[in-house]
Design goal:
The structure holds 2 protein chains of 2 kinds.
Chain A lengths: L4 E4 L8 H6 L7 E4 L11 H7 L4 E3 L1 H11 L1 H40 L5 H28 L11 H15 L3 E4 L2 E2 H10 L2 H11 L2 E5 L1 H5 L3 E4 L12 E5 L7 E5 L1 H4 L5 H11 L3 E5 L4 E5 L2 E4 L6 E4 L5 E3 L9
Parallel strand pairs in A: 1-6, 2-3, 2-4, 4-6, 9-10
Antiparallel strand pairs in A: 1-11, 7-8, 10-13, 11-12, 13-14
Helix pairs in contact in A: 3-4, 4-5, 6-8
Chain B lengths: L1 H12 L4 H10 L5 E3 L2 E7 L6 E6 L7 E3 L1 E2 L5 E7 L5 E10 L2 E5 L7 E4 L2 E7 L19 E9 L4 E9 L11 E4 L2 H7 L2 H10 L7 E5 L4 H5 L4 H17 L9 E6 L1 H12 L6 E5 L18 H12 L7 E7 L4 H14 L4 E6 L5 H6 L1 H8 L7 E2 L1
Parallel strand pairs in B: 13-14, 13-15, 15-16, 16-17, 17-18
Antiparallel strand pairs in B: 1-2, 2-6, 3-4, 3-7, 5-6, 7-8, 7-10, 9-10, 11-12, 12-14
Helix pairs in contact in B: 1-2, 6-7
Classes of the chains: A alpha/beta, B alpha/beta.
Chain lengths: 324, 383
Amino acid sequence: MVGSLLLLGPQRPSQNLSEALGTVPGDGPVVLITAGWRHDEGEVESLQRVAGSSALHLPIYRWFDELMTSQPALANAWRLRQAKVLELKALHRLRLLPAIDALRQMMDRVSAGSEIARPQFQWSLDHLRELDQQLLDHAAVISRQHPEVLRPWEHPAVAAIHQRVAEAFAGSRAILVAGGHVAVLRNRLEFFGLRPLLHQAVARGTSVIAWSAGAMCLTDRIVLFYDDPPDGAGHPELLDRGFEMADSVVLLPHCRERLTLSDRRRVSLLATRFAPDACLGLENGAWLVRNGDRWLNRGPPGSAVWLWPDGDVRPLARPLEGPA
Amino acid sequence: MKRIHDLRARCEASPARAVDEIRAFIATNSFPLFDGDTAIFFFWDERPFESVSLMNWVFGLESRQSFIPLGSTAAWYLPLELPHRARVEYKLELVRLGQRLWIRDPLNLHRAFDPFGSNSVVTMPGYAPPLWVSADAVTRPGSLVTLTVKSAVYGEGREVTVYRPSEYKPHKKYPLLICHDGRDYIRFANMIPVLDNLIQRHEVAPLLVAFTSGVDRNREYGANPKQPVFLVDELLPTMKAEYRILDGADNVGLMGASFGGVSSLYAAWARPGVFGKLLLQSGSFVHTDIGRHDRGPLFDPVVEFVNQLRSDPARIQARLFMSCGTFESLIWFNRSLRALLQDHGLDIRFVESQDGHNWIAWRDRLRDGLTSLFPGHLWMYYD
C-alpha cells in the first residue's frame, strides 16, 4: 500500500496537524523533521504533543552544523558549490527583472487591445519560462561540477546519518516535515539524501505530512514570493527544484499576506508563468490531499485558493480541473 | 472649491438662512475637503473672529496661512495646495479681541501626538498609515523588561527598557539596537508593535532593542562627550552582561531622531568600530561652511561636531540609514551630509518623505530603516 501525501497550510494561529495525522492508518511511530526552524529545530514539545510521545525527532539541522565543523574538506566543497549557486542566482536576477518588466508591459498592451502585442506577449512569456528553466538547468550543471558533494550522503561521515534516517523512516507511520526557512530545509534534506528516502517511504506505505515550506519542498518547483518587500520589485523567483512528490502544483503559503491577490495583473502573471502547474495559495487550515491526478482541499472553504491565469483567485474546495 | 463657492452663493442668496446652510454643510462633509492636490480647510464659530490662520511647520511654506472669510458669514476657509502623499500637522490660530488662541482644528478629528501634546493632521490622497504600525491579535508580541544601568558618567541609575522578540530564548544570540528617546519611540512611534509585526513577517531579523531616554535630553544628545561614554562603557556592557549579543560591530546598532540622530552619529564618530549600524531620522546635522549658525547655543556643540565630521567622515565605520522629511529645514543638511558620506565610501540608504519633523513621520520610515539594517529572511520563510 502506498502512503498518503498530505500538504497543509501554515499551522498558526490554529493547527490542523493532529486532525490530519488522525486520518493516517497504522500504529508505527511518527518521525519529525524541523530543520526549517534552524536554531529552533529542537523546540518540538508542541509538535510532540500532537505526534505522540513516541515521536522521533531527527535533528538534521544540528547534524549538518556538526558535520560542517568535523569534516572541513566536505564543508569546503559544499560551501564552494553553494557560493557558485548564490552567484548564479544573483546573475540570473539581472536577467529576470527586465524579462518580467517586459512581460508586464506586453500584458498591458494586450489588455489595451493591441494585436501586435499578442505574439510579443507570448514570446516574452516563453522567454521568461526559458529563463526559469535555465536557472534550474544551470544549478544542476553546477551540482554536477562538484561530484564530491553531488551525493553527500555517500560520504563516510554522512552515510551513518543517512542510514539512521532510513531506519527511522522504515518503521514509521508518518513523517512530518515542518515549514520555516525553505532554502535551509531543502538543502538539509538534500544533503542527507532524504529525497530518495522520502520517495521510498511513501512507496512502502508511510504517509508524509508537510506544511508551508515543508510542503513546498515536496513539489516540482519551489517558488519564492513576496509582492511588497521593503526593497526591490518583489518579483517571484525560483529557488530550485523540489522533491517531485507533489506534482502539478506550485504552493504559496501565507498567500494573502505575501501576495497582492487583488492585483489581477500580478496574479495572472504568476499563474501564467508557472502554468500548467496550478498555483495554490495555502492559508491556515488548508489541507490538500491527492485524489487520483487531482488535489482536493479538505480544509475550510477559502483556506486554499487557486490563482488562475486570468487573474481570478478562487477557493479550492473541489477537485482541480486544471487551468486553461 | 465648487462646494465652497456653492455654499457662499446659498448664504448670499439667503442671509437669514446662512447659519443653517453652514451647519448643514458641516454636517454633510468631512474636513478638510479635497479638490485634487488642494486641501480645503473650513472653520466656523458663532462668535466672530478677527482672523483665523493655519499654523504649520512646513519648511518652504509660510508658517501662518490666513483663512479667507466666506462672504459676510462667520465662516472661514483656506485652500492649500499640498504634494501628493503629504502629511502635515497643524493648529489653528484664532484672533478675537486682540487675543491669540491656538487650537486643534475642531472639524478634523485626525490627531498626532508628541511629547508636547497633539496637533491636527491632514493627509493628502496617496498617504495611508502603514499596515505594520498597529498591534493585532495574530501577531505574537515580544516582551519588555526594564533594567537599570549604573551610570558613573551621569552620576545616577538610568532605566532602560529592553525589547525581546517573541521568539526570544536566553541561550540564543541576537543583534542589539540601542534607541535614543526610547520612551517617545515607544509611545509616539508605536515602535513595539512595529517590531512585533516586522519580525513576525521576517522582514526584520529578531533583535533586542534597548530603549534609553535622556534626562536633560537636549544637552545629553547634542554631541555631548558624556553620551558615548554612557552608551559604550555603561549601557553596552550592561546589555552584554544580561543578554547574549551577536559578536561584532555589525550586530550592534544605534538609532535616534532629531538630536537623537546627532547623538547616534556622534557616538559612532567618537567611538569608531563599536556601532556598525546607524539609523538616523531627521538628524539635526546643522553645519556651517562659513560664519556662525543661527540656531541658538544648544546647537553650538552640534555644529562643531558636524563640521569636524565633515573634515574626517571616514572615521565613521558603519552602515547608515538616513531619513528626513522634505517639509523640514533639516532636509538640506541631511542631503548634504548624505552626499559627503557617500563620497567617502560609506554605505548609506537615504529616504525622503513628504512629511515633517514629527513622530509619525519617523514611525512611517521605521520599516525602511529596520529592514535596511537588520533584514530578515523575508523571501525564505514560510512558517
